[in-house]
Amino acid sequence: MGVEIRVEGLTKSFGSQTIWQDVTLTLPAGEISVMLGPSGTGKSVFLKTLVGLLKPDRGSIFIEGRDLVTLRESDLYEIRKLFGVLFQDGALFGSMSLYDNIAFPLREHTRKSESEIRQIVNEKFELVGLQGAEDKLPGEISGGMRKRAGLARALVLDPEIILFDEPDSGLDPVRTAYLNQLIVDLNAQIDATFLIVTHDINTARTVPDNIGLLYHRHLAMFGPREMLLSSEEPVVRQFLNAQRIGPIGMSEEKDADELAAESGQELPPLPPIPMQLGTSDGTVRRHQREPGGWCRDNGVTPPPRSFSDDSMSEPVAS
């Protein structure tokens, strides 16, 4: 069962450089959320701050009624047990077998017997589809398998919150599609709170329940998937639909001359909102929303062909 994360007025800087400021959002319990943003906007810093690896300059992070920012180290250590983290490269120990990598947190943080550990590790291997690879070293397997092994290790302590730091980094589109399906299926099975940092627009448009966008040192928007995919907010519209026209340039912000040159250009129409990725077996996740439900409830007319088979035939470049 996932838990809610409530972030209020979070600000982080390194020296004189402000990474982001006054970030406020709520990650709903048990739902899949995605955090997007141009390179260098501090998405990975946000993940590290959520788990208490970095301390913010200001603000609060409330989990189960406790503010992580003010906790003593011993109490923070206990809160971190709620988290599982999948790092970009899997962060596996190169000299250990996959089995020992996944067993490592159990051996370090619990007093379970080796027979209990073996049962748990085997369950996680099966969950991520790595049966038969237990004795392999990380250097002997593909990047996609390393991601799945890293995910198995993130799951081994049965966390209620799972953070994914660019899980699709270095993967081809086919492996990314398999990983996305695995994430959706896992959420249906364990009902944990998921937060995914990614650059992959197709992932952001089809996988999550909620989307956030960090831009220009602040949170531009956070909310249900359909809200952002139907948004006319310039930076949200440009980024989520991979469009050239808009405030984002090669160096994050376009200058006045670039924006003036675009003045008067007609924006391309919003693409259809695709169906959300479902589970492999067709079951409905507990927090999955009805297609078009947010748009209907908020009086928003979605782009033509949204939530239909046609919407899946127009992929957005990422």
UniProtKB/TrEMBL annotation:
Residues 5-241 form the ABC transporter domain. CDD domains: ABC_Org_Solvent_Resistant (cd03261). Residues 254-318 are annotated as: Disordered. It comes from the Bacteria. Coiled coil: none annotated. InterPro entries: AAA+_ATPase, ABC_transporter-like_ATP-bd, ABC_transporter-like_CS, P-loop_NTPase. The keyword Hydrolase does not apply. This is ABC transporter ATP-binding protein. Keywords: ATP-binding, Nucleotide-binding, Transport. GO terms for molecular function: ATP binding.
